[in-house]
Amino acid sequence: MEDPVYHYVVIDDNESIQSFIIQVLNEFDWLCVEQSFGNLSDAVCYLKCHEVDIVFLDLCLPDMDGLDIFDQLEKMPYTIIITAFADQFSRGVCRKIGKGISAFIEKPFTSEALLNAIENFKRSRLKGE
């Protein structure tokens, strides 16, 4: 039986961060990038029509607070928060943990931090969470 392929999107207004995430994760044949977005509005439109397994979500976006996505989508995929403003958003993040936040990575981050978050995702899928 073949291992499943998990699909993800990146939502970050910094194209370097988008590229870094995609580059690091390209080495895994069980991960497939679907899209990357620089704003939340386009991402929400996409996610309402397409099912993905993982969302990498920046909290500070040009059009909205990244946490607004939780109010706009009925069901959230496994969500990995990526932000440079951890202290500023910690209260809002704590309120959304029950709604789908699965991991938190503070910018600047290394490929190791990203890989740890992905390994946690894979372990959660193997456990059936």
Helices and strands, with pairings:
Layout lengths: L5 E6 L3 H11 L5 E7 L2 H10 L4 E5 L10 H4 L5 E6 L2 H11 L4 E6 L4 H16 L3
Parallel strand pairs: 1-2, 1-3, 3-4, 4-5
Report what the structure shows.
The protein has 129 residues and is of the alpha/beta class. Helix content is 40%, strand content 23%. The chain is built from five helices and five strands, in the order E-H-E-H-E-H-E-H-E-H. It has helices at 15-25, 40-49, 69-72, 86-96, 111-126; strands spanning 6-11, 31-37, 54-58, 78-83, 101-106. The chain has a five-stranded parallel sheet with strand order 2-1-3-4-5, sandwiched between helices. Strand 4, helix 4 (86-96) and strand 5 (101-106) form a beta-alpha-beta unit. The chain is globular and about 45 Å long.
**Low-confidence stretches at least 5 residues in length (pLDDT < 50)?**
none
What structural class do you assign from the helix and strand content? Answer: alpha/beta
Mean pLDDT: 88
Give the % helix.
40-55%
- Please describe the biggest sheet, giving its number of strands, its sense, and whether it closes into a barrel: 5 strands, parallel
Rg, Å, rounded: 14 Å
- Proportion of residues in β-strands: 15-25%
Order of helices and strands: EHEHEHEHEH
Mass-distribution shape: globular
| β-strand number | 5
Give the N-terminus to C-terminus distance in angstroms: 20 Å
Order of strands in the sheet with most strands:
2-1-3-4-5
Count of alpha/pi helices: 5
